[in-house]
Amino acid sequence: MKKILLSIFILVLFLNAKAQVTTLAGDYKIIDIGGNGYGDYTHSLILLHQMYNGTTPINHNYAIGTITAMRGTSSAFNRINVVNINTSSAYMSTSGTINSYDDNVSWSLKTCLYNGSMYLAVDVPYLDAYHNWGFKFSGATSSTGENMKCVSYLVNGLPVNQSVLSNIQNFNPTMIETHVAAGVYVTGVLGIGTSDTHGYQFAVNGNIHSKQVNVDLTNWPDYVFQKDYALKPLSEVKAYIDQNQHLPDVPTATEVEKNGLNLGEMNKVLVQKVEELTLYLIKEDRQLADQQKINQVVKQQSDLLKSQQKQIDELRESLNNKNNKKNK
After folding, report:
1. How far apart are CA 309 and CA 293, in angstroms?
2. CA 109-111-112 angle, 5° bins
3. 67 and 46 Cβ atoms separated by less than 8 Å
4. What is the DSSP letter of 21?
């Protein structure tokens, strides 16, 4: 019984704990938010500020600044997660976006209900080992309710604080980030719409529109037109198609669905096939021209034979007429 009462007392202290706030000027503050209150294997939210709940207009609430989460000692591995926050809610609308610097796991914007009020929050990047140095905010912030408060919602796989925290949902960013600069250079990998670039420098989970794309390539297939190029007979190509249901050197549908399509290499293959087709057409045209010459010779010979036959027929008719006169 004593242990239960002690646990309840500690929980009440945690839920009512106030972050240490150092006000520098106006709403600009440094806030020691504290830790998650549980330790390892804990999922937590940090309540940024109250937000419009969809029915009742709200006074100006906002958070513009940085939250830092750290871990590390001589016997605990290093972790650092930093998020830059730009959020606000007033009257009947809410705006927000974040950008973060993380090891493997990223921050995300959330909405939730806390003690019946709607809040904008960030989900703390989760690893089994918690941030033992807690969370600290520096920047300008104001809230008509809780402000920079850490509330955990899952510990060791089990829900906690369900009596005060509920309806955790993703918040889709509403703000646009613009860089007015002479250039933007990224030395690492870049993912748009995805955090998994599959080992590539640049990955996009979505459609791309562009006026021009240049791809650096080598071994362009002009070798097809070299004298020693071994052009497969069409009968051999047909036999390959009948057996494999695709052209030689062209990836199969299964391979493309699994690995995607290398546009540079595919264009090389397509040009190779176009050049091979051109050679087939040139060969066919040559054969057709040769056949036309043969046909012309045959026609000339046929016309000559017809002419000779006509002369023979005329001569025979003339002889027959002379013989007929003599017999009379």
Report:
1. 24
2. 135
3. yes
4. E
- Beta-bridge partners for 142: 62
Helix, strand or coil, per DSSP, at residue 122: strand
pLDDT digits (tens, 9 = 90+) for 23-38: 999 999 999 999 999 9
Confidence (pTM): 0.73
pLDDT at 7 over 90: no
Q: How confident is the model over 217-230, as pLDDT tens digits?
A: 999 999 999 999 99
Q: How confident is residue 323, by pLDDT bands cut at 50, 70 and 90?
A: confident
Q: Among residues 325, 232, 314, 212, which one has the least CA distance to residue 273?
A: 232
Q: Who wins on pLDDT, 202 or 8?
A: 202
3-state secondary structure (DSSP) of residue 145: coil
Q: Is 104 left (phi over 0), alpha (psi -120 to 50) or beta?
A: left
Residue 91, Cβ density class (10 Å: 0-12 exposed, 13-18 middle, ≥19 buried): exposed
Give strand ranges (E) for the chain: 20-25, 28-34, 42-50, 58-73, 76-91, 93-101, 108-114, 117-123, 135-142, 149-155, 158-159, 165-170, 190-192, 202-204
Sheet hosting strand 135-142, strand order edge to edge: 20-25, 28-34, 135-142, 58-73, 76-91, 93-101
Contacts with 234 (C-beta within 8 Å, 6 or more apart), sequence order: 280
Q: How big is the chain, counted in residues? A: 328
- Residue 32 to residue 54: CA distance in whole angstroms: 31
